[in-house]
Amino acid sequence: MALRDALDPDRSIWHFIAVHLRRYREANGLSGQALGDLLDCDRSTVSRYESGLLKIPRKHAKIVDRVWQTEGMFTALIRFAEQAADGDWLIGLAEYEKRATRIRLWEALLIPGLLQTEDYARAAILRGVAEDPEETLRVRMQRRADVFDKDKPPRFTAFLNWTVLAQPVGPPEVMRKQIAHLIEMSDLPHVSLRVVERTAGAHPGLDGSFKIVTVDDRELAYVEAATRGRFLMDPYDLQEVAVRYDLISDIAAPVGPSRTLLEQALESYT
User: Fold this and answer.
1) Among the four residues 101, 115, 117, 155, which has the most C-beta atoms within 10 Å?
2) For all residues of the chain together, what is the average pLDDT?
3) Does domain 88-268 have CATH number 1.10.287?
4) Is pLDDT of 87 > 50?
5) Would you state the torsion angle of the CA atoms of residues 228, 234, 238, 239, taken in this order, to the nearest 10 degrees?
6) What is the Cα–Cα distance from 12 to 73, expressed in whole angstroms?
7) What InterPro entries is this protein classified in (predicted)?
């Protein structure tokens, strides 16, 4: 399924913009290349606008508003979407993960959701503020299954801060099963788990958790926040996150020693 087929204009303002950009283009009899010429960009950029992988900037919205005589509709929609602080992009996270060919992430505080066992996830969710913990748990487990249970799962690399192993979430039995699950996952040929040890000291990863998702040969970053996460698709923002990832890679323990650290953490909960 194409990315644009996963857009949900009823739940996301940005998705609404992407869907209607395509509809207006087709209604006006323009190809993707023709619209690119009008906006002074290439056809692939137009495709990214219409698939939701890239937000159409205001300068381009003003052009289509003027040419298509929409009375400023696209410009106004972008203003409303920006005021929403990107919260509705969370709706698309599971879809992008499902279609990813590569996922790279850094987790500073908890075991990443895609690597959580059901018991660990439940313990973490119940300590949070979810309005419907069981539904939140169901969605999280489905996200995990959609990524790892498909015929061709993505290449998955995770850097874990030492604190995620030391911080108990639930009783010791829950932590034992969780860390045993990490060890089991690390045996998979498409999964790489590495630990940043306490001795690493201050480093760029302390600024917060994030993931870089590769979809259809394009990259987007998702950064965590206290109340909601947000996607970064601007090339400069993506480069900044990628540099942080590389810097963390420089200090993370190699795969072999990281497995030893996981095994030691498992023994600490016996």
Assistant:
1) 115
2) 88
3) no
4) no
5) -150
6) 16
7) Cro/C1-type_HTH, DUF5753, Lambda_DNA-bd_dom_sf
Residue with structure tokens 């996963």? 6
What is the residue type of 120? Y
DSSP string, 20-52: HHHHHHHHTT--HHHHHHHHTS-HHHHHHHHHT
- Those residues whose C-beta lies under 8 Å from the C-beta of residue 174, and which sit 6 or more positions away, are 117, 119, 120, 123
**74: part of which helix (H) or strand (E)?**
helix 73-83
Which amino acid makes up residue 110? L
At 188, list the tokens. Answer: 């998979």
Cβ-proximal residues to 88 (8 Å cutoff; 6+ apart), any chain: 11, 12, 13, 14, 15, 81
Strands, sheet with 191-196, edge to edge from the N-terminal-most edge strand: 191-196, 155-161, 102-107, 210-215, 218-223, 230-232
Rounded Cα–Cα distance for residues 88 and 15 (Å): 9
Residue 84, pLDDT above cutoff 70? no
Q: What is the pLDDT of residue 149?
A: 94
Q: Could you tell me the residue ranges of all domains in the chain?
A: 3-84, 88-268
Tell me what pLDDT residue 92 has.
63
